[in-house]
């Protein structure tokens, strides 16, 4: 057995407690190295005749990536305390692994074992229960719909008449969203993520001037109240974007520093390296990236902290919003986010907190900060396989398995999955215009675990490159919309609602990919019901053989409603299938 590649620590994705008191343990071992693993566990104080009482529970292999097998088990320690270790068997002999290292004999002292001293519900990761069933829709307000010509900024261009630029305006606003609520309802989405709506200079509004005002180009507080009400009346949650890493250049507090320099009472609100301020070639104060227009806020400063926490509180308390998306969340200190969590959840316990983090985000997902992060590692894998074709099915399944095993499963169930945003090229462009690929990608997005988000316009086949190309005006002329694609997305959302296994019920596993196969499948199962989602990456039609485990079950094709009588299914080139198996 290769001891070097046996990995476990009693924390994070490897060991976490749920609010119901159960504990989830995961271990990873070299691919193919272990035949079986058992968890040895017991209460640390439970002894009789000077012997520690413990039991063995078999672990289940939940996935394999390029290098590792992953094993899981869930147990519920009766007294909420736990000592545990692993019995690993390679088919010939067993070895024992605990905090004390490796042993050929089963150690008798509890100190050898890993410890979970006590399971506290308050320490568990507990996102709001509504989140995992939500289908999000992302709106960039300047470009979704213009519902009020009177608030249009000077120089507003005719809707959709030009390519989007970093500095042009088309007049989109909050009234526009209210006016099109029936469109969103028809599509079936249940949550909207708005990029920033507070008073700011640019068209994207990430350079805030006033955190406590709606940008007049988008409407006023009354319009937001109405919007929230209309959304709630239609079963749609509302999430706003909080830009707390930095302010805008024209934020009055920063302007004060620009004017008064060292004498400004706000000089400690930012991270100024030296006075006087300079802006070129790089600013001499901390910023978002290197843009002088976005001075970084000093969240170590108590005044700043209180100011921002009040902003967090204000929009929840006064406007009843349901979520905060936190911009550049990874560059703000953890202590601030812990305070933020306490404040906003103190007002509305089922408020959702989504951090914008593009990389491994475990430190923010331990229950004391965020409920989810924007799952860009998911995006990357999907685009590499379906759109860019730079990896094959085998590689994709391995990558996805690795991504999933980086987090506890409740984190995965609530992950904010996306295939594009206002920061990335549109999915249609990534697919070089191939709508079959787009359909596959949206199918994967809406049937996998996590909570899917659709970027406005992707559902009607809009195109656009990276920022600012991906920020075109929404197309409202139905003859210009891809209505077939719209119906595809609509049908997927409806199916996801009908079949909880397509959302976050049950357990997920990938089927082993046959060598050189252009098809892959994942399965969700609960009790005796299974749903299989299959994709054909090939440019030709291919048949996909059901594994032996399905032999006695007659599948129903959930997409067409047909009963299948074969032990295989024929998939179109770049096609997919969603199948239900039950006894
Ligand atoms: C403007 C121009 C861009 C130019 C950029 C360079 O439009 O063409 O590339 O300046 O300075 C907002 C606006 C942008 C604007 C930007 C700066 O929406 O249009 O860009 O402000 O003025 C990283 C961060 C991540 C950030 C992305 C953009 O980690 O937090 O970069 N995303 C948020 C918002 C943006 C917003 C800002 C932050 C600033 O969602 O819309 O931009 O408030 C990798 C890395 C990621 C990196 C990602 C993209 O994969 O892992 O860390 O994200 O690439 O670069
Ligand atoms: Ca307008």
UniProtKB/TrEMBL annotation:
Native source species: Lederbergia ruris
Pfam families: Alpha-amylase, Alpha-amylase_N, Malt_amylase_C
Protein family: Belongs to the glycosyl hydrolase 13 family.
PANTHER family assigned to the protein according to its UniProt record, in alphabetical order: ALPHA-AMYLASE FAMILY MEMBER, MALTODEXTRIN GLUCOSIDASE
Source taxon at top rank: Bacteria
Limits of the Glycosyl hydrolase family 13 catalytic domain: 138-496
Key word Hydrolase present: yes
Alphabetical list of SMART domains matching this protein: Aamy (SM00642)
UniProt keyword annotations, A-Z: Glycosidase, Hydrolase
InterPro entries: GH (IPR017853), GH13_cat_dom (IPR006047), Glyco_hydro_13_lg-like_dom (IPR004185), Glyco_hydro_b (IPR013780), Ig-like_fold (IPR013783), Malt_amylase-like_C (IPR032091), O16G_dom_2 (IPR045857)
Protein name as catalogued: Neopullulanase
Keyword Metal-binding assigned: no
CDD domains in the cross-refs: AmyAc_CMD, E_set_CDase_PDE_N
